[in-house]
Amino acid sequence: MSIHQNLQTKPSVCPLDCPDTCSLSVVTDGVTIKEVRGSHANPYTAGAICKKVSSYYPDFIHGPRRLRTPLLRTGPRGSFQYQQISWAEALDRVHSGLKQAIDHHGPESVLPFNYAGPHGQLAGGSMDFRFFHKLGATQLDRGPLCGAVRGMAYTSLFGNAPGMEPEQAAKSDLVIVASNNVTVSNLHLARVIKSARRNGARLIVIDPKKVKIADQADLYMQIKPGTDVVLFLALAAELERRNALALDFIQQWTTGAEQYLKSARQYSLEDAARICAIPLEEIELFLGYYTKAKNVALSFGNGAERGHSGGSSIRAAMALQVLSGNIGRPGAGVIAKQGLSFPGTGNKLRRPDLAPEGTRMLNIVDVAKHILDDSLAPPIKAVFIYNHNPVCTHPDQNRMRRALERDDLFIVGCDLEMNDSMAYADIILPAASHFECPDIYAAYGQTHLQRAEAVIPPVGEALPNTEIFRRLAARFGFDDALFKTDDLSLMDEAYDPEDPRMQGIHPSNISLDRSLPMTSANDQELVMCKNVFPATTSGKIEFFSAELEHKFGYGLPRYEAVPTRHPYNLITPSSSKRTNSTFGGHPESSGPEELEIHSLDALEHKISSGDTVRISNDLGEVILVAKVSDKVKPGVFYSPKGTWLTTSSTGQTVNALITSELKADIMEGACYNDTFVEIARV
Predict the structure, then answer these.
(1) How many other C-beta atoms lie within 10 A of the C-beta of residue 288?
(2) How many Å apart are CA 664 and CA 180, to the nearest integer?
(3) What is the pLDDT of residues 403-442, one digit of tens each?
(4) Which of 36, 329, 423, 472 is 20 to 30 A off residue 132, Cα-Cα?
(5) d(Cα 123, Cα 416) in Å, to the nearest integer?
(6) What 3-state DSSP class applies to 22?
(7) Among residues 585, 612, 629, 589, which one has the least CA distance to residue 679?
C-alpha cells in the first residue's frame, strides 16, 4: 500500500485567539500532521482558513521548537540550556518549588500566569483553574491584556446579551468596519461584506492604517489613533441637530440618552475633523451614507481598545447605532460578544468556589511590576507560565524580562514549543496540542459550538493540559473527585445540556462533522430587542453606566489626549503571519519585522524602503526594516505585533517600547497603541 493510501482526513477545529474559530480538515498519516485545510462543518467559516493555519501548523506541531519531554534548566535564564528529565522528576520539582513558596510566604505567593494560548476550552481553562483555586494561589484578571475593554464597553450598554451575528451583515445596506483588520483578524466577515456589497450595500472603513479591506470601501477614514470617541460623539450630536434620532426607539428601549447627548454636544463636526485629523468632507459623506441607510451593521474590533480612550471610543460607536435606531432588525446592529450566545456554565467547569474567600486578584498587565515589588505582601515567589508567552506579548518587555530573571523566583513553564518565555523557566512541562487531545470550542466572534477529538497521538511525552493538572493535583494530595474528572465529563460541565440552545445534545456528544448553532426559540436568528433583550439592571440599553462611573469615573464616554515627549505614534496591530506570538518562531517570522512609515516622515529622515532603522524611547530600542507607505498617516508608524526576540539585533521587540503604566479609561486595559518613539536610520 502506498504512503498516499495510508493518509486519512479527520475533522478538527482551530483554537487560535481569533473570533472566527474555523472548522478544519486535517490530513494525517496517523502520527504526523501532513496538511491542514478548512472544512464546512461550521457553515460560517465554510471551508476558508487563513494562510498561517494552512501553512504553519505542521511546523508548529512537529518542528524543531516543539517540546517533547520535561526539561530542567541547566544554564542561566534565557540561555535555552536544558536537560531532559522524567515526568516523575518534573512533577516532584514543581511540587517542591511551589510548596517552598507556600511554606515561606503563603499560597498567594504562587501566581498562575496564563492567557488564551492555541488551545480549546478545556486546555485553556478547566482543570488548571480548579487546581490553582484549590491551592489558594493569587488570581489573575486576564482581560485587561486584551478584550476586557471592548467587552465591558459593549456590556455597559447591552448587558450580557449577545450582539448581532456577523452573518446578518449580508442583509445590511451599510457596513461600518472600525479598528478591525478584517482580512487578518476576522477573515470570514470579509465574505459577508462581499455578499452585502453584491446586494448594493456600501462599506465604510475607519482605521489609522489603510488595511486591505479599505481598498473595497466606498469611504475610508484614516483616523488619528485614539480619537474615535470624538468622531462618534460629534456624529451623535449632529444627528440630533438634523432631527435624525430614532426618538421612538430611544424612548422605548433606552435610558440616559439626554445625559449622553448633552456630553456629545461639546463636539462639532469641525472639532472632530481637527482632533481626528479627518477631512470634514469625509465626515459629511459618512453622515450622508449613514442617514440614508435602512440597516446599518457595525463591526468595531479590538484595535481602539488598545488606547487610553479606548473604552469610550467603542461605547460611543455602539451608542450611535442605538441613537439612530439601527438595532432590532436583521442587518441592523452591533457585531459583538457572540460568546454570550452560548449557555456556558463556567463556574461549574472552573470551580471558583474552591478559592479561599478574599484571595487577591492582580491585573495581568501589572505582573512584572508586582514580581519586582519587594513590598508586596505576600511577595510573588513562584510563577506558573502556561498558554502564554508574556515576554513577547506584554507591554514593557524589558521590565518583564527583569522580573523573570529574579533568582528568588521559581518558574514553571508549560507549553507546546520552546519560546522566549519558556527560556526563563526552571522546569518545563511539554503540553499536547489541540490536535492531540479532545476539546470543545465556543467562539467570541460567531455562534457555533464545536467539538473535536485527537487526530494524532501526543508528540513525544507531551500531555494534555487537563492531564498535567490532574497529575499535579494528585501530587499535592487533592483527592476530591472533581480533580479526576475526564475530558468528556469536563465538556458536559462546560455547558448546560438542559438549555434549549443545546437542542437536547450533551456537549460531549456534539457531532464532529457539524457545528451546533446557537439560536433562539423556533431556530430564529438572534436579534437584539426582538428575541434577545438588554440584560442590564434597567432592562434597557444604558447610555450612562452607573457601574463604569462608580469603578472608573467614566459613566459617559470621554476623550482624553495622551501627552508625549516623542514625535511619532507607533501602533502594533495583528500580523498576517502570527496570532499574537503564536507562529512567531516560524521561519516566515524570522529576521527584522517591517516598520511602515509615511513618505513625508521618510523624507525628513532620509529613509528609503529597505533601510534598517532604529525606533526607540526611554524603555528600549528595536531594529526594523523600513517600508515607505502612504497607508499610514504622517507621524504614525505601523509594525505588527508578536515577533520574537531574535528578530531584532537589540534582542528586543516593539513590546519593549510600550508602557505598562498607562491604562485604558475602563478595565485598566493595556494601551499598546499609545506608544511614542524616535526614529533613526542605522
Answers:
(1) 11
(2) 18
(3) 999 999 999 999 999 999 999 999 999 999 999 999 999 9
(4) 423
(5) 12
(6) coil
(7) 612
**Nearest of 485, 489, 439 to residue 464 by alpha carbon:** 439
Residue type, 525: E
From CA 430, how far away is CA 109, in angstroms rounded?
24
Q: Which is nearest to 52 in space by CA: 586, 665, 679?
A: 586
Q: How far apart are CA 492 and CA 499, in angstroms?
A: 12
Instruction: Give the three-class secondary structure for 590.
Output: coil
pLDDT given at position 523: 67
CA neighbor of 244 nearest in space, from 288, 293, 291: 291
Closest by CA to 30, choosing from 67, 57, 3, is: 3
Q: What is the mean pLDDT of residues 70-79?
A: 96
Cα angle 410, 578, 646; round to 5: 55
Rounded Cα gap, residues 476 and 459, in angstroms: 26
Cell of 515: 457545528
Q: For residue 368, what pLDDT is reported? A: 98
Confidence of residue 522 (pLDDT cuts 50, 70, 90): low
Cis peptide, bond prior to residue 378, ω within 30 of zero: yes
Total-model pTM: 0.96
The helix/strand/coil state of 638 is strand
Confidence of residue 574 (pLDDT cuts 50, 70, 90): very high
Residue 1: predicted pLDDT: 29
Distance separating alpha carbons of residues 261 and 205, to the nearest angstrom: 25
Say what percent of the chain tops pLDDT 70. Answer: 99
Contact 72, 86 (CB under 8 A): no
CB atoms within 10 A of CB 522: 6
Q: Tell me what percent of the chain is helix, strand and coil, each rounded to the nearest 5.
A: 35, 20, 45
Q: Which residue has the cell 433583550?
A: 533
Mean pLDDT of 215-242: 98
Query: Cα separation of 222 and 485, whole Å?
Result: 52
Quote the CA–CA distance of 505 and 507 in Å, as a whole number.
6
E-state strands within 380-476: 382-386, 410-415, 427-430, 439-441, 448-452
Q: For 20-118, where are the E strands, in sequence order?
A: 23-28, 33-38, 71-73, 82-84, 110-114
- Which of 296, 677, 339 lies closest to 501, judged by CA? 339
Give the DSSP H/E element, type plus range, for residue 570. Answer: strand 568-571
Do 87 and 67 form a contact (C-beta atoms < 8 A)? no
The DSSP letter of residue 275 is: H
Decide if 69 contacts 461 (C-beta within 8 A).
Answer: yes
Spell out a b/e string for 189-214, using b for 16 or more CB atoms within 10 Å of the CB, else e: bbbbbeebbeeebbbbbbbbbbbebb
Q: Which residues contact 48 (CB under 8 A, 6 or more apart)?
A: 22, 38, 187, 188, 191
The mean pLDDT value for 319-348 works out to 96
Closest to 421 in 3D by CA, of 642, 263, 210, 604: 642
Inter-residue contact 310 to 146 (CB < 8 Å): no
- CA-nearest of 433, 407, 311, 379 to 12 is 433
pLDDT of 3 above 50: no
State the Cα–Cα distance between residues 202 and 218, nearest whole angstrom: 6
CA neighbours within 13 Å on the CB side: how many for 478? 22
Mean residue pLDDT across the chain: 96
CB atoms within 10 A of CB 228: 31
CB atoms within 10 A of CB 561: 12
Match 515627549 to its residue by C-alpha cell: 565
d(CA 187, CA 185): 6
- Residue 91 is inside which H or E element, if any? helix 87-105
* CA 170 centroid distance within chain: 25
Straight-line distance from the first to the last Cα atom of the chain, in angstroms, rounded to the nearest whole number: 58
